Amino acid sequence: MSEIGLGGWLTFGKAMDDAVAERVMGTALDLGINFLDSANAYGQGACESCWGRLLKGRRRAAVVLATKVFFGMDSGVNDKGLSRKHIFEQCHASLGRFQTEYIDLYQCHRHDAETPVEETVRAIDDLIRQGKVLYWGFSQWPVEVIAECLQICERRGYAKPKSSQPDYNAISRWIEGSVMPLCHRNGIGQVVYSPLAQGILSGKYMPGRKLPEGSRATDERQNMFMKGLVSDEKLLERVQKLAPVAKEAGLTMSQLALAWILRRAEVSSAIIGASRPEQVEENVKASGVKLDAAVIKVVDGLME
After folding, report:
1. Cβ contacts of residue 87 below 8 Å, gap of 6+?
2. Is the pTM of this model over 0.85?
3. Number of C-beta neighbours around residue 158 at 10 A
4. Which one of 42, 106, 135, 205 is the catalytic residue?
5. Does domain 4-199+264-290 have CATH number 3.20.20.100?
6. Which of 27, 76, 87, 116 lies at a CB distance of 3.0 to 4.6 Å from 123, suitable for a disulfide?
7. SS3 helix, strand, coil % of the chain, rounded to 5?
8. Cα(258)–Cα(262) distance, rounded to whole angstroms?
9. How far apart are CA 119 and CA 14, in angstroms?
10. 157-206 tens-digit pLDDT
11. Active-site residue, 158 included
């Protein structure tokens, strides 16, 4: 998959109309992004439906199409979680919205403490054997659950997970101590989300200043998880100290943040969100960038 992936969390089917969405998607594909990450819960299926329309007529094999299952899709007791019933029903619903016969990467969106891990793994293994799913992964699973899952797969001969999707950036580094090493030893790549910390690491949010007009932070459809970040003056001050570091490296602040993530061998792809084609054009240039050790040290020191 491409080092930069395109995500649809708060944008496709929600904050963008189809005309803008088509330009963003087209730009991503034209620039070599082939990893497209969605979830059934993104807009309650709206993102998947939007992508189904946008990808219609394009060569299916040219994209790595990913989606997820876990969060509630209706009010019924079985309309959420990772039970065999919910996984099967939602996989087929996602296939219908995507207008495709298979999902490249099917991910458990969170850990379901109410369902045995073996039931979840067996259900996904069956989908793989049926050809409806090619590979599977998980998002934000605790390290002990990952370890249990791997033991079950080894013992039962089930397909092992191939990806882990955590939030990971220079501000949030919780996976480095245990999740990342365990996954790396077992051939599980990190396909990380929020690589720019909801846009904070782009440098657009300045301490002591009004929020930029038209930014995600001013959009009530997209800002529900970032209000604490944009109000943290000390954090914003630290982020602004990265500006000269990026300039010296010949990068934008967003490109620096992405290159800092992609330097890790454990990371397969960093998933960006975009509401304009220009954001895709800027961010994709981080792929292939090699940061000097001195630059990495400075970023680590500022963000720790």
Report:
1. 69, 120, 123, 124, 127
2. yes
3. 20
4. 42
5. yes
6. 87
7. 45, 15, 45
8. 6
9. 33
10. 999 999 999 999 999 999 999 999 999 999 999 999 999 998 999 998 88
11. no
